[in-house]
Amino acid sequence: MHHLLDKLNGINRPRLLIQAARIGAATYRRDLHLRRLFGPAPIPHSSESLSRLLEMETSMNRRRKLCDAGYSAADHVDLLIALMGEARIVRAAYPPRIEPAQPIQFKPVKG
């Protein structure tokens, strides 16, 4: 699961898209947003939803960069809102990774 969150942390998008998505993420409603994006099928578990949303967002961003005529900034923001909302749910469900502590290295003191 942490690999999905790491991948999410590596996403760089235009500031305006991120700001708009952050505002929308404050009122994220899982059932409403995911139904709009995934259709009428049962809503998958948050980790699966996050994986699918990451794939969809990568495709959407590719279309943005290619100046595709079918690209919609509003749809991209909606997708980013869902991505942020699902990431929040997944982060709450999985405790943060704790890296093993490095052994203390003692250096001899002269004198």
Structural write-up:
By secondary structure, the protein is mainly alpha-helical. The chain has one domain (2-93). Helix content is 62%, strand content 0%. The protein has 5 helices and no strands. The longest helix is centred in the C-terminal third of the chain and has 21 residues, at 73-93. The mean pLDDT is 85. Pfam families: DUF6477.
Q: What is this structure's SSE topology?
A:
Blueprint: H1 2-9, H2 15-25, H3 30-38, H4 46-65, H5 73-93
Helix pairs in contact: 2-5, 3-5, 4-5
Helix content: 55-70%
User: What's the helix-strand series?
Assistant: HHHHH
Total beta-strand segments: 0
The number of helical segments is: 5
Domain tally: 1
What is the mean predicted local confidence, pLDDT? Answer: 85
- Roughly how many Å is the radius of gyration? 19 Å
Properties at a glance:
111 residues; mainly alpha; 5 helices; globular
In short:
This protein has one domain.
